[in-house]
Amino acid sequence: MEIILAGFHGNHLYYKNKDKEKNTRAVINLIKTQKVDVLVHLGNPEFPIDYKEVAKVAKECNVALELNNSSLGGTRVGSEKTCRELAKYAKEFGCFICINSDSHYCTQIGHTPLAGEIAEEIDYPKNLILNSSEEILYKFLEERKALKPEKIKDNYIETYYPTMKKGE
Questions:
Q1: How far apart are alpha carbons 69 and 74 in whole angstroms?
Q2: pLDDT at 8
Q3: pLDDT higher at 118 or 61
Q4: Statement: residue 163 has pLDDT above 70
Q5: pLDDT at 91
Q6: Are 97 and 59 in contact (CB under 8 A)?
Q7: CA distances to 8, 20, 52, 108, 158 from 45, in Å
Q8: Residue 33: left if φ>0, alpha if ψ -120 to 50, beta else—which one?
C-alpha cells in the first residue's frame, strides 16, 4: 500500500474510551511504530487525547494528522472544538495535515468545506497540507517510505481470531 491511515473505531477490542491518557499512549505508540502515514479523525471526542503531545510526536516522526470534515458535519458530535485544538497544535509544531471528507457516501467525496474552513481560519501553511497538491503528497510519501519498517507483520487474525486461517 502506498499510504496507510488509522484511527480510533470503537469495537469489542477497544471500546469507545474516555481515558485520555490511555488513548494518547495508544496513538503515540502507533506513531512511533512508523506503520501508519496519516492518523484520521483524532478530533473524535469519544476518544479524547492530548493533542499537543500527539502533534509533537507526529512531527518528530513525520506522521500526518487529518482534519475530518465528516466529524465536523455531525457524525462525531462535539468534534469542532477538538478538531480546532488539533489543528492549532499541528500548525504550532509544523505537522503535515490532510483535509479529508471521510466520505461514506459518493456525493460527499471531496466535500471538505468545514475542515477547510478551520485550516483557512488559522492560516495553515499550504506546503503542509498533503492534499493541496500532488507534489506535496508525493514528497511526503517518499519521506515516509524511508521511515516505514521493511515488513509490517500482520498478526491481527492470529491474535484475535485464532481459529480462523488467513484467506478465509
A1: 9
A2: 86
A3: 61
A4: no
A5: 98
A6: no
A7: 11, 10, 15, 22, 31
A8: alpha
DSSP 6: E
Q: What is the pLDDT of residues 27-45, one digit of tens each?
A: 999 999 999 999 998 988 8
Give me 20's grid cell: 485520555
Residue 127 is classified by DSSP as: G
Q: How far apart are CA 155 and CA 66, in angstroms?
A: 26
The pLDDT assigned to 119 comes to 87
| H or E element that contains 132 | none
Q: Which of 150, 106, 134, 75 is nearest to 40 (CA)?
A: 75
Question: How far is it, in rounded angstroms, from Cα 48 to Cα 22?
Answer: 9
What confidence score (pLDDT) does residue 100 get?
A: 83
Three-state secondary structure of 65-109: EEEEHHHHHHHCCCHHHHHHHHHHHHHHHCCCEEEECCCCCHHHC
